[in-house]
Design brief:
The complex is a heterodimer.
Chain A: E1 6-19, E2 22-35, E3 39-43, H1 50-57, E4 65-70, E5 73-74, H2 80-89, E6 91-94, H3 106-115, H4 122-135, H5 151-163, E7 169-173, H6 181-196, E8 200-204, H7 208-211, E9 216-221, E10 224-230, H8 237-243, H9 249-253
Parallel strand pairs in A: 3-8, 3-9, 6-7, 7-8
Antiparallel strand pairs in A: 1-2, 1-4, 4-5, 9-10
Chain B: H1 3-15, H2 18-55, E1 60-65, E2 69-70, E3 73-74, H3 85-94, E4 98-113, E5 116-125, H4 128-133, E6 137-140, H5 145-149, E7 154-157, H6 159-166, E8 176-179, E9 182-190, E10 205-209, H7 210-218, E11 225-230, H8 236-250, E12 261-265, H9 266-309, H10 311-319, H11 324-360, H12 369-395, H13 399-404
Parallel strand pairs in B: 5-10, 7-9
Antiparallel strand pairs in B: 1-11, 1-12, 2-3, 4-5, 4-8, 4-11, 6-9, 7-10, 8-9
Helix pairs in contact in B: 1-11, 2-9, 2-11, 2-12, 3-8, 9-11, 9-12, 11-12
The chains are: A alpha/beta, B alpha+beta.
Chain lengths: 254, 406
Amino acid sequence: MDIDNNLICVKNLVKTYKMGDMQVFALRNVTLNIEKGAFVAIMGPSGSGKSTFMNVIGCLDYPTSGEYYIDNENVFKLNKDRLAELRNKKIGFIFQSFNILARTSAIENVELPMLYNSGIDTKERKERAMAALKSVGLAERAFHMPNQLSGGQQQRVAIARSLVNNPLVIMADEPTGNLDTRSSYEIMEIFQNLNDKGITIVMVTHEMDIAQFARTNILFRDGKIVTNSVVVDRKIASEELKNLPVLDVNEIMT
Amino acid sequence: MKLLNLLKIAYRSLSKNKLRVLLTMLGIIIGVASVIAMLAIGQGSKENIQTSMASLGINSVMIYPGSTNQGGVRMGAGSYSTLTLKDVDAINSKCDFVTDVSPVVSKSSQVIAGNQNWHTNVVGGLNQYFKIRDLTVSVGSSFSATDEHTAAKVCVIGQTVSTNLFGENANPVGKFIRINSIPFKVIGLLAVKGQNTFGQDQDDIIIAPFSTVMKRMLSTLYLNSILASAKSENDIDNAKTQISTIIRIQHKLTHADQDDFTVRSQADIAKTFESISNVMTILLACIASISLLVGGIGIMNIMLVSVTERTREIGIRMAVGAKSRDVLFQFIIESIFISVLGGLIGIVLGILIAFLVSYFGKWPVVITGTSILLSFIFSSAVGIFFGWYPAKKASNLNPIDALRFE
């Protein structure tokens, strides 16, 4: 396996679930390499195993069998604590349902990963959290609670949170699934900017137009990779945003 | 993972649920407060007994005539008069652990002064009686050796007697009273002593020279008791043995004979009362501890609910890099925080209750550092103990399962 140029190397990944007496295969022998700096969109119908794959390569879940290297580390040989450290320092997560802490201000949510990183003191933590919020355009909403933020803004808080520890890869599980078109495109704009800076992005989506923002598309079906293709007609989010009809002046202001 | 960060995390999540934290704390607050208040009340009653015992003369030793055995029929304590002045003389001359000795005779009598009368106990004793009983004469004087020799009809009266015969704040010194139709001149008024442990009014007493009561009122040769005082608190037991030995010789008792007298010290009585009040204190503390325990279970209950309710939050924390032990410590710190803060508030409340009890209940309370420390440590331990299980449960969660939890 060539692991030198690749950030993520997955080999023969199998994941089965037990449903009563039945054994359900979520992943059947998935093998995949993702290079540093890639922007991959994983697509597929419900139950195709794309979310399971995401959770496994995100070090949130263990597979039934297989090998997995991230940044030259053999993930399945690591204990729970090392895995937590890996999630903290090398991976940034973004979820469909945002998963930011309720009744906790935006900046405190962004600070969260750094609280579990002992190398960062209070001053640096606050500065970096603010910088991350600024980079997603939410600096002036830093002290707002999640219920005072729109869905798009909440997702941007989640992106800021995923960025603060300078991860190698951002894993996004249907990041635009709960968002309107404009917000979705704004998220894609952020992703493309990050990707241009060299951050690898792996994103699960079932929306074709969203997948068009990635560099490569991978199609899952029945726990297997069906196609792995380079996006031919790649869309640029900043341009798409300009083409969107203006509905309300206030909407652009956010 | 820095401790400071853990504290910050715990503080942030607690501050989001202030009302719930307060209600959980209430169990601990009540528990600790009741432990402190109960111990203070128990300790107060103990010290109350000790001081009132001291007021009876802490070194004093009492010798009572004992039971007699008449042809196998035992007559019970005090049924036979065995103590005489010869015993007093023997103790006086032969006991080196004893400093003062006084024979005691007493008679319950009707006392008349002017148009008032009162029923009280008339005690006959030597001048040493005052010293042994730790009595002081506040107005006038006690009787002299001459009074004793001549069986003078003089007496020293207690405050209660004075009030009942002469009215409030009257000076009885120099006035005459009649005890069993015999006129006595009041030469002194005792300083107020109040009630003793048994609830007896120590000011309801008339003390007259021993010879006067013995000869003029009782016409007897036997004593009601002998009162002696040991040299020091440490010599009480020695004095007791010595007195026993001497009186046994005096009474010509053989080895087969039982004592025909009883020697008791004030310290013995004090010890008995102390052990009773100790039992009471422990009992009160036990009851209070139960409420502390219930408070602890309250913490566990809330923490368990909290873990379930915050499963998603735990999942998020784990997804961004929290280790199992970070989650474990977060929840333990939360429960320790609740119990420690509850403990501190409980201590303040307990002290307040103790003071209110002493103020309104006229009951002496003593708050000891030990009781504060003990209940504080106990409440913190309750926090760790009852916080452990929910925290462990939270930390054992799988990140993906926690995130999927609805």
